[in-house]
Amino acid sequence: MGTLHEKTTSGRGEKLNITTVINYLNKERGYNISADYYDNIIVWWDWWKGYYKPFHSFKEIVGDGTVIDRKLYTLKMAKKVCEDWASILLNEKTEIIIDDKSSSLFVLGKEEEAGGVLNDNLFWTKANELVEKAFYSGTGAFVLRFNKVKLLGNKVTGDSNSSIRIEYLPAINIIPLTVKQGQIIDVAFVSEVLNRGEKFIYIETHILESDGYVITNQYFKEDASGESLTECSLPEGMLKSFRTGENVPLFSIIKPNIVNNIDEYIGLGTSVYANAIDNLEGVDLAYNNFNRDFKLGGKKVFLNESLTQRDSEGKVITPDDVAQQLFVRFGDEFIDKDGKNNLIHEFNPSLRVAENKDGIQGQLDYLSFKCGLGTKHYQFNAGNIVTATQYMGDKQELIQNASKHYINIKDALKSLVCSILWVGKTILNQPVNPDALVTITFDDSYVIDKESERIRDQQEVRDGLKQKWEYRVKWYGEDEEKAKEMVVQESNDGLFGGGE
């Protein structure tokens, strides 16, 4: 906390040795934390990048016995799945509503102007990215940090120059220390940082004690082997530790709403495709076969040796050296399928386009089903026309799972806003209300089409659950007075077929 001049390079599993950090915490603080779970996160991270070496690399023996390293073609669907979930769950139509004007201004700023803690921290872009990363890694965290605050006695305080910074960290940077009922209470956040040209390991712990949270900051250098840490001085202005005096966490955890069937008690979530690795492999195998058929499917022309020449070095020269990759030399005899001996034989391999497309589509259907998107989410049959009813029927699984994930997203956002308001009131001395009512609304137009919603509202009017004038306000854009006037003028055979 305090004035910092570092760039966080979080989420870079290939650089951040989480095992070294866990070993340090176990030794210095007496913990007994296992690093085993992070092996799963690294695997998920590789799939998200689109290249998991144990699967995507293989060796191939060519005609002369030479072994060649090959790489599978990949659709990189793990990232696409996470991108799609992030687009559905947190987008530009997600709303945070705070019922206190000054609190809303502090957190959200004015609609027509910049400002507000969230806007200052590029929240809507970065939060969407964090949802994507949480869905690949199983967990994400919003972490509040401060610029230009100071310690007066035991109290952290700021002034007009102080500000809140939000960090967005995926699971590889999160080490739960205490977990109760599945909720992370104590935690260490670990990042690689670049401070004035030097790389450091930054460890920040949040420990809940009887009088509130204690937050500590430490900087380390790794040794050449990467297996041990040496503590270094903190950057100028960063506090070694401080007490908040409250049990309000300065972090908020976001996870896919999926039960962790690898380690239910670790406090970290599971990737949305943790149980679909076989399906990711299936997609790439089918896609690789498609590409290989095209790569190997070029025309082949077999020539009798008598039709070829050799250069001064003894290399074979084909009749058309511009397209010489088409030609293959064979011996004295070549018997074709009709039993004829030909000097020239042409071979056109089948590309199996339809079969390959069907194979890829089938694998995509299995993958989208296993990742909660439904079996019809990835379709390449644009020529087929479906009715709105059929379309919504195909999306029922997506609708149900989106509603489930919304629960965790909503809780994480409300926790984040409440923490920001508490910091604003207690540390930054802003005129805000930490107890203000916070409401989160999501855009469900992606999963609930407007025609179905309209039909539902008409039925609610018939059932007496909604007033006719409410329907007109929503669907005809009338104000309340005009809508009520129009309802009075309607006959019993009006819009809804009679009834009040």
What do the pLDDT scores average to?
Answer: 82
Main sheet summary: 7 strands, antiparallel
Instruction: Work out the strand percent.
Output: 15-25%
Helical coverage, percent range: 25-40%
Instruction: Sum up the overall morphology in one term.
Output: flat
Gyration radius over CA: 31 Å
Indicate the structural class.
alpha+beta
Number of strands: 19
Give me the number of helical elements.
14
Ends: how far apart? 62 Å
Number of domain modules = 3
The residue ranges in which pLDDT falls below 50 over 5 or more consecutive positions are 1-14, 321-330, 495-500
Describe this structure in words.
The chain has helices spanning 18-29, 37-49, 53-56, 77-89, 101-108, 117-120, 123-137, 277-296, 353-370, 388-394, 396-426, 450-462, 468-476, 480-489, and strands at residues 6-8, 57-61, 67-71, 95-98, 140-152, 155-170, 174-180, 183-195, 198-209, 212-222, 229-232, 241-243, 251-254, 300-304, 309-310, 316-317, 327-330, 344-347, 438-441. It is flat and about 90 Å long. It starts with 5 loop residues before the first strand and ends in an 11-residue tail after the last helix. The protein folds into three domains: 6-272 and 398-441, no CATH class; 277-397, no CATH class; 450-489, no CATH class. Helices cover 35% and strands 24% of the residues. With 500 residues, it is an alpha+beta fold.
